[in-house]
Amino acid sequence: MSGLCRMVSVSDVLTKDKINVLKTKGTDTIFTKVEISDGIYDRADAIVAAGSDVHSLGVKWCVSLGLAALYQGVMAEVGTDNRMFVRKAERAGFENIHKLFTKMAGVGAAPDFVEIEVDVYSEIGLTLSFEEQTRMLNACINAAKAASPEAKVILATKDSTDNEKAKKWYNRFQVSGGKPFDIISLKYTPDAETLYDLSCNMSDLSRRFDKDIMVDISGMADISSASIGLEDVDSAINIVPLDKGFGTVYSDLVLDKAVMVA
Q: Rounded distance, CA 225 to CA 33, Å?
């Protein structure tokens, strides 16, 4: 399935040797989770170096924004006052992401993709209106695009097999004034019993919102125990209508045990 984008999330220290090994397995994009916190741009040398190494070896780079710690810090400061929280969180998200991405862009290490997880608010115990969630997501998108205008924006959700829930979320995001984005990422655990539901969800979301679809199975370190294989996930992505099946995010641990052809 060589036409699909293959992103790989690296579980240990990212080195040029590691990147080259992953390239031999068909990897075209390194996927890195970056935990955003206040002042991260002042201590981002390792992040910038990683991006420079990725690009120097002819591989693309995807930065997934870890926002939980940043938002928890704001919540600790303002408490349960939603109005104050959203205002401060918007500002903190924009400033830290924009300064970090500006620093990366200044040395040619700007990411090719930026991913934002849409489930982060509920996961840290926040109850926000959809308009409030949209404001915070927009702040992150605006910050990334202002510094890296060529980067494609990925919105990631865990609702990979629940089509009703997923389409409701993306519809509400658009209606609430959500900023343009490029790719929908569905976090998924490979399973024969849910593959059909995943396929139906990908097909519906791609046509309904005219977006590319990516499947993220990087949470699974070993697929040998799953009832389906990597080729089954690839096949499901390949049949997404209108060539909207974009690719897959793997764990490097999965690729260590898999035979893949570039």
A: 26
Backbone angles phi, psi at 248, to 5 degrees: -135, 145
pLDDT tens profile 33-45: 999 999 999 999 9
Phi, psi of 249 (to 5 degrees): -105, 120
Minimal CA–CA distance to 51: which of 99, 115, 10, 107?
A: 107
Give me the residues paired with residue 245 across strands. 213
**Cβ-proximal residues to 8 (8 Å cutoff; 6+ apart), any chain:** 22, 25, 27, 29, 30, 31, 218, 249, 250, 251, 252, 255
Angle formed at CA 152 by CA 148 and CA 8, multiple of 5 degrees: 110
Instruction: Report the C-alpha gap between 206 and 203 in whole angstroms.
Output: 5
CB 156 within 8 A of CB 117: yes
Angle (CA) 90-96-40 rounded to 5° is 140
Encoding tokens for residue 149? 């205008």
48-63 burial, b if ≥16 CB within 10 A, otherwise e?
bebbebbbeeebbbbb
- In tens, the pLDDT along 212-231 reads 999 999 998 888 888 999 99
CB-based contact 154:116 (threshold 8 Å): yes
| Beta-bridge mates of residue 8 | 30, 250
